[in-house]
Amino acid sequence: MHCPKCDTQLEETAVECHCCKEQISPTLQVKKKSASVGILIAASWLILAIIFILLLNSPVSSFEAAITSGDSERASQIYKDQIIANREYVNDAGTVMIVRVDEIVNAYIEEEITYEEAYEQLDDFLEYRMVESDTKKAIRYINEMETSRDYYRDGVKQISQKDYIDAYMSLLRVTRVDQAYYDNAQSLMKTEQDHLKEAVLVEIDDYIEEEEYEKAIIVSESALKLFPNDEAFSSKLEEATEAQYSTDHKALEKEADKQKVFASDVVIKEEADNNHLEMTVHNTTDKTVAMTNVSFLAFDKDGNPLRFIDSEGSYEFEGYIDTPIPPNGEIIDVTQLTPQKKVNKVISCISSVEFTDGSEWENPYYDVWLEFYKGNPYQELDLEKDDSDTF
Question: Which of 40, 149, 177, 359 is 20 to 30 A from 24 via CA?
Answer without folding.
Answer: 40
